[in-house]
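Bench notes, afternoon.
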Amino acid sequence: MLFDVSAFRTSLPKGVQVFASGANRLAEIRGFAKLGIPVGVAVNHLGESAITELIELQRPVMIDSGAFSEVVFTAAGARIVSLITDDEWRRRLALYLRLASSLREKTMLVAPDQVGSQQETLRRLRWYRAELAEIVDTGAVLLLPLQVGEISHVEFFETAQLAAGMPLTPAMPMRKAVTTAEALMKFVRDVRPPHLHLLGIGIENRRADVLIRAIRHFSPDTSISMDSNRLRARVGVDRPLTITEAELRRAETERVYGAVDSPVLALSGDGLDYTDLIASPSLWCLHHRLREVAAAVGLSAADTEAFVSDPDGFLQSALGNDADVLWHEHPMMGFELDRMWERFVEETVRSGIRTAAIVSVFADSRVSAHANKAA
């Protein structure tokens, strides 16, 4: 296997790893992480908070370039609808390097390609050869989508590695410019790659088990990874993720002043307790809100800066010249902190709805660590 994921995924067929792709938002990454499901992301759709989360999680991740959306297929053939410019490729490859530099061997990245074009894919591999070498030097794995074209998959794979100047891991497109079963089996039989990725097909797809068995037949030692957008099929009217999110939005949050009772927090496993946290606003209150508290209480400029820089210590300090009374006992201070706590709880619950819904909907998934434990 490419990664050791035994600590955070379910058992699958031996030598098989599955990624939940399309999880580009922070809440989605967190939801799948809580279930022990590795995610696949599109680098062009990642915000800073999602990038930071991936780095902090230190979990295996598959990172796509986003070239999939560059081309659409019509009856007349492939048509470019959103060409990726050189500047944009370099921006995406810089993000590749940033993530790979932190996650190293846990990172699987799709090489620059153009769906349905062998020649353009080879050109891009040559053009970005230096950037790709820097990425691979981190220990990251570089996937090569084996495009359909004039030359066979085997010849294209060999030519692409020469163009890139490095070993690449073959990846078979299973959605756009789809690899036929015959072409897939011929490639596996002829090359017997150490690892093979199936792009755009998940373990729960009805074809998956058949393909895995066939690959095993022709190349028993080949490890397999695969990815599919687990979210897309569950979002929409009368779809489980959308229904669950709506139910969670309607759910009431109980006991704000104590151990917060919320179905959202219960599902995501994120506990909040007023008693534990109210005296430590540094852990939950943003700086601009600390300034709001200071203004409402009427703190002087000097006290405001002291409060904002160390709110926990300030609350335990003497109020004026009275050493027997501390700032946390000031009635306006207590009132304003309670007001900020309510806002914090409300926002935490609201921002956690997507995460909680994913945990609820995918808990029984074949690739969920929770499902594996239950079994």
